[in-house]
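Quick question about two entries, pasted in order.
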Amino acid sequence: MDKQCDNFTDPLARVVNAIRSVPDWPEPGVTFRDITPVLQDPVTFRSLIDIMVYRYMRRRIDLIAGIDARGFIVGSVLAYELNLGFVPVRKKGKLPYATVSEEYTLEYGHSEVEMHVDAVRPGQRVLLIDDLIATGGTMSAANRLLQRLGANVVEAACIIDLVDLGGSKLLRDQDVNVFSVCQY
């Protein structure tokens, strides 16, 4: 059986094999994990969404919150497939209505994410999603925002977990379950 047929029967292998490694980007010594090829191929993109649909279809989830910007891509499609609402977690200054914000630390400075003040209702069960977890700053800030608004974060999900950077451990230390399709 050729590799294409093997990948067709194994959605996880199809997704993992499509992730492109870009050496020395955005700076020397860094290997960037690019999900663009996953999104470009319709069968691979469907495989990714199917992996997540099967994981969450029987979980009691009320909303999906996707983090700017690639979390919007996966999160909105997943919300559609699961017949759920979608809430964007945006970079500061991008939402048109009243917002709440949460600051987080980057390697060289600070940034902020925001949500509309009425994005979630107290007690709603929310799946938080992004393309990857690195140091966990963005996802941790989004988790804090959701909790401030009274949501219960069911899980933080991503395509890629860069384990050595500690983000998934940071989230688990904050009592957030973490799911990743693959790890590097």
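Here is the second entry:
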Amino acid sequence: MNAKSSIQTKSRHEQLGLSNAEVIEMYKYMVLARKFDERNMLLQRAGKINFHVSGIGQETAQVAAAFALNRQRDYFLPYYRDYGLVLSAGMSLTELMLSAFAKADDPNSGGRQMPGHFGSKRLRIVTGSSPVTTQVPHAVGVALAAKMKKQDIVSFVTFGEGSSNQGDFHEGLNFAGVQKLPVIFMCENNQYAISVPVKKQLGGRVCDRAQGYGFPGIRVDGNDAFEVYRVVKEARERAVRGEGPTLIEAMMYRLSPHSTSDNDLAYRTKEEVDENWKKDGIPKLKAYLVEAGLWSEEQNEELFKEINQQLKEAVEAADNAPFPRPEDTLLHVYASEGEGL
């Protein structure tokens, strides 16, 4: 068999350099993120937590992108729906639940921030702020530092399509383009900026804006794990070669309400949501694994049981953990004696 025919016989994930174990792990993280999200929706409705902002429908692109990066060295600047990304980067269910329950041991902020505001020095997840798009110039700053230190790493930042209309987006992209910085911008275009549909937000495509700043912009199906993996992997290779940034627009759909404070059927129809459930990337990847002989319904049932048990333990640990002390409100506001500026 010649080399060409040998490549043609490879499975889709093998052509991309993914092993059987890696593609199965990708699927497991997607399911883990989905189940975490669903459990938090229930916890909020039951009055156990105050608030949850959902990422259901966006996990496929998040996990695929994480696997295309160097999860031991690269820097992550996620936005508030990125449970799939931060779980893939190494955050645990218990850590995320501590944040959801606003407990003192929350590693993201000590219970000071709303859920979905991720931060971990250990995992190189840079703390985000509530104002949207502020993470974009921060990611550019991280990339500038990497270039100055001649480190072969990238910063990876995500945001919604609504954020692409903010000044921080344009300033960040312009600076990254001028300096040819190793940063990957990924817009998770989920079709809605809270209640505003994309047709009322954008006069064109987000990815096309990269042209004005001198680097490639790529639109990709965010429900196709392998396509997202491919374009992020290629963007990373470009970045570490010194060829500069890439803007990726991953097309997807927010299947859940904007948050637990949102009635999404006030601005869209149930029929529209139901139609988009058919495009969900998680069952698509599961079907691929089953067809490839790498997965079975029995394994799927066992995975669900394992995750449910992990969630049960994480919820119990977070629920029983202590709240921050009232006086902790004053921590990290002003420099303490001996801390310096």
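Reply: The CA atoms of residues 28 and 303 lie 8 Å apart. The beta strands are 75-77, 155-160, 183-189, 192-193, 196-197, 217-221, 246-251. Hope that helps.
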